[in-house]
Fold this protein.
Amino acid sequence: MQDYDAVVIGAGLGGLSAASILARNGFKTLVCENTTHIGGCCSTYEDNGYNFDIGASIVELWWIIDELFEALGKKVSDYIDWIPVDPIYGFLTADGQRFTYPVDPDETRKVITGFCKADGPNWDAFQKLGSEAIHKAFGQIMTTPFMTFGDAMKVMTKAPGMVKLLKYMGLNFETTLCKFFESEKVRASMSLQSYFVGLPPALCPGYIAFLAYSEHEGIFYPRGGMVQIPAAIARVFEEYGGEIKFDARVKRVLMDGNKAVGVELMDGTQIRSKMVISNINAKTLYLEHIGREHLPGWAAKAISSYEVSIPAPMIMLGLDAAPDLDAHHTFCYTTLDEMNAIWFEDYYSHKLPDRGFMLVSWPTHADPSLAPEGHHILNMVTFAPYELAEGDWDDLKEKYLETQLDFLEQRFGLRDIRDHITMARVTTPKDFAKMLLHPGGAVYALQNDIMASAFFRPRLRSKAVKNLYLTGASTHFGGGVPPTIGSGIAASKLITKDFG
Ligand SMILES: Cc1cc2nc3c(=O)[nH]c(=O)nc-3n(C[C@H](O)[C@H](O)[C@H](O)COP(=O)(O)OP(=O)(O)OC[C@H]3O[C@@H](n4cnc5c(N)ncnc54)[C@H](O)[C@@H]3O)c2cc1C
């Protein structure tokens, strides 16, 4: 006798998206969440009157969210108040230069042409292919089950735009941009996004480089903080009768032979269901919550072979004045070589970040209501190892904070930032792992290199365990707000087909 049709482990974006569609389709659905809040990496918490985002700080490819709400029979504008963000980025360089990339591609073209005349027409070509890649390929595959080579072939026939992208599958992010652009500055300023999937330009798959165009289709911030996105999905889920249980950490998946039949919580409660949907790290799911004893040898070996993605320590600052910045997002500019060295030298040798490369996000630029009147929020994100060669993150928070502030003040010209800090919090990779149970503090669950992408990534419908489905950053299409929502849509398509 089942208690539910579907039990979902985790109230992140992937889990909530799948759950809400299932609830709308009449499945009795329960979401079990370990913490007391929804959204996982896409959430917001209040501290001393400041509303800090835990992780995600912007939304692009917004039409995936529209697609979710269409599947739910709702209008997204009834649930989320989108604030358009423009320019996309500001850049601060070590020699005191500043420039921005506006959303309007023609305005960005002017900036690029200022660096290198030839890169104006190069930008046009990049933009054209980028637009096709986004609309004819990524836009479709993100919400489509994509588990086998056969699935890839089917998508290819439906979306011929994909064929043009094939050659970039064999290239990396860096070589893709070098093929298009001549100026080192243009190449580097567009390569920073490779870290948006948690990889350096030399390792990130080439087709991801078109992300640098996708943001020119518009980027948005939800009024009230990033948590408004999962909150909107959770609201619809509950309107359709779905239930969310907080403080409900799943200890294991209940198995009957090779079939998932429910979950057991840490307090011993057992919940029986027709299917289990996981929104947590796939390695934790298979190796800890299911266990090797329930997996065929090939599956245990395959899942063990994935690397978890790089962590992203964050500094959250409350300020009593507006920072001297030009955009919601600012990159402290660095060269391609430096971006690769962050990975090949620092990450591999377990060093604290000390190159000054960071993404500074200024959410109160878009939404002043996130902080007390006249006050502002800055989030500073870098990429760094979980284990450090010298010392432990818990003892190095202060040193890390001071080093990053020194970079901002001394190298990048925000001279008086320290004078305006009213509060500072550092979330280290260890904090992240404790908070969200992300192994290794991983920012995007599993590494997104080519051998862990598309049908090489853990499948939306498990092959090893019957009635088990995956959503979120561990499965197709990987990390990010739109991709994880897309994974929920794609998983719900499979479930509706299997259990319809
Ligand atoms: C620092 C940072 C910055 C980012 N910036 C952006 C950005 O600007 N734009 C963008 O598009 N994306 C961004 N991302 C990525 C994006 O936020 C994530 O990829 C996405 O939110 C992950 O969603 P998910 O569905 O994988 O679930 P997760 O967010 O991983 O949520 C999983 C949930 O499962 C719960 N859980 C874990 N274990 C258990 C258990 N055993 N039992 C019950 N519950 C459990 C966790 O508490 C959590 O709530 C960023 C991420 C980070 C960390």
The domain at 4-80+224-306+447-499 is CATH 3.50.50.60 (FAD/NAD(P)-binding domain). The pocket of flavin-adenine dinucleotide is lined by residues 9-15, 32-35, 40-42, 55-58, 249-250, 279-280, 312, 314, 381, 436-437, 443-445, 472-473, 479-481, 484 (CB under 6 Å). The first helix runs from residue 13 to 24.
